[in-house]
Amino acid sequence: MQRTLDLNRHKWEEIQHSLSSLTGLTLFIYDPSKHRPCTAITREHLLCHLVHQTERETLCQNAFAQQVDLAIQTQQISFSKCQANLNYFVIPIRLSNEMSYAMIGGKVYQHPDEYAHFKQNASEWGISSEKLPVDVDLSCPGAQEGLQQVASYLQVVATALLENIYRRGQYQGKAAHLTTLLNVGNQFKSVSNISILHSTLLNTLGILFNLKSACIFHQTKKQGAYRGVAVFGEKKERFNQLEASLDILFQKRSGGDPFVFNDVTFDLLKSKLPQDVTSCYLFPLYQGRNATSTLAIFDTILTSEETAMISSFCSQAGSAVENIELQNQLAEQRKIMIALSNLTLMIDSPLYLHHLHHNILEQTLQLLQAEQGSLMVLDEFKNELSVKAMKGINRPVYEMFNSKPGEGIAGSVYETGVPLLVQDLNHDPRVQQGAKPRYRTPSFVSVPLKLRNRTLGVINLADKITGEVFSEEDLQLLQAIGSYISIAIERSELYEKTEELKRISITDALTGLLNRRYFQERLTEEIERSRRHRIPVSLIIVDIDNFKGFNDTFGHLGGDEILVLLGQALRNYIRAIDVAARYGGEEFTIILPQTNKEDARIIAERLCREIERNETLQKKYSDLARLTVSVGLATFPDDAETFEELIRNADRALYQAKLQGKNRVITFDNGLFS
Prior knowledge:
Blueprint: H1 4-7, H2 9-23, E1 26-31, E2 36-37, H3 46-51, H4 56-74, E3 78-81, E4 87-95, E5 99-108, H5 112-122, H6 141-145, H7 147-187, H8 194-208, E6 213-219, E7 226-233, H9 236-239, E8 243-244, H10 247-250, E9 259-261, H11 266-270, E10 280-287, E11 290-298, H12 304-348, H13 353-368, E12 370-379, E13 384-391, H14 408-416, E14 420-422, E15 444-451, E16 454-464, H15 472-505, H16 516-533, E17 537-544, H17 547-573, E18 579-584, E19 587-593, H18 597-613, H19 615-621, E20 629-636, H20 643-659, E21 665-667, H21 670-673
Parallel strand pairs: 20-21
Antiparallel strand pairs: 1-2, 1-5, 3-4, 4-5, 6-7, 6-11, 7-8, 9-10, 10-11, 12-13, 12-16, 14-15, 15-16, 17-19, 17-20, 18-19
Helix pairs in contact: 2-7, 7-8, 7-12, 8-12, 12-13, 12-15, 13-15, 17-19
Enzyme class: transferase
Protein name: diguanylate cyclase
Organism: Candidatus Manganitrophus noduliformans
């Protein structure tokens, strides 16, 4: 705590001025601990001022310090003469048996010869005679009555008055300290960051109690070990991240009182604190009945009252720490619930595997606060673990991380079905030297993705954002969500297989176009839509000219190749809303939604010309003749009232195109065709 007299100096100086006027003597209070006056000098003698400007100043100060030490040690008034041969006294004053001060007074000549002696030496010291007074005044009360009698009187008066000022200052200081601690303690309730709380606690106590060094230690997972997490004072660098065995000291503590060590002992050295620590106070920051953090104050002597105040303040801080930790746990639980909810949504909402893999990895990385990770799934065809999603590595090098079951870290985890938690890969015998992955931190976790008796793959995480190691809690959480991940992957695999079967069921195996059954379903839907919204829908039937001759010449394989090429051409030539299908043999159909007869004819004519100009098709067909198509066109509701009638009339138009010489488009006309 700051020396209380300093806080009330102006009050004493008023009293000091009155005493100096009454006695006619020089007076001031000296602080031995700081080796300097702690009040202004009242009635400083002119000759002292002149001596201080010479080389005798050092001798004067040394002799003066010796007299102060003598008075303090003997607790008796000390009398002496200064370099100017002036008489002075040193009165020892001890306040409340705690603080030692000295009152310096006098600086007078009691006989003319004393001044005459000084005048003889003054010129040798470089003091001009012109600056010296001719005579000195011996009429001051202190000189007449004798310094010994005045000093005894002043000792009684000054001690009583200073004790009163000192005690009043103590009470005011304690009140100010308590008010500050109470206000800061109340502010703890609004702090939501543990680092800010630690900093506030240390800075508040450090300033109020003038602490030399202080550190907040947090208990680590290692038995009895604590690590410095926040520091204050002279030894900041030495205590930051220092790992100490504070349990050795806690064992010496009785009850719930703070632990106090005021001398260097073997126990203090065994605790692995710096060897130059001279004292140690430990204040546990209790959260309920437990204390995972402790405030340690070093190299500072505290009174019992100060210890009690700090202990009470630490109790407030402990409650705030508990509140922050509960808030953090709640936020962590909320984050877990959101992640599990997202994983559940992935299960309920089928996603294609590519998107699912990346979503799963992203959610898992966020949940465990990791920077790097990969999701590997077994490719049964290749019998290898294939990287399906990865963060921290560029996509082009994904395949470099594929591995066979039993090979490498991921392969071993997959084959054994046992998760792997590594907190320091540089010293973990389970990680082979040549197989050590390159991560920013030495900790990673790898968990198999199991579903019933089947292992689907492995998820790997590394490099926590905080730089910490992965914990057992992290492993348990990853294993818990691993079952959700496995279910999501299996459901998506089944979804994709179902979609593939659905696609196969509606697709022509040869050309990849829609098949006849699906074409009929779509045409029925478009006709119903046309009826409801009174919009036209057109249908064209395309037939390859002279295809039988080509088939007979080049065989079915050659014919199939032409059908495949024509299917690709049709997909490229039609609009996005149009539906192309293989109707049968060499016949193809195209549904043109929301298209009237005139627009449909334009589309059909362009289609014929594009096919005729298609170099790939013509090159295959050139040995026989140029490949051309005939097209029949009919529109609903102009040319038909039903699904069957629309197909029949488009087919009749195609027949006319063949009769009229092929390689043309014929539009159905009810008048002509009747």
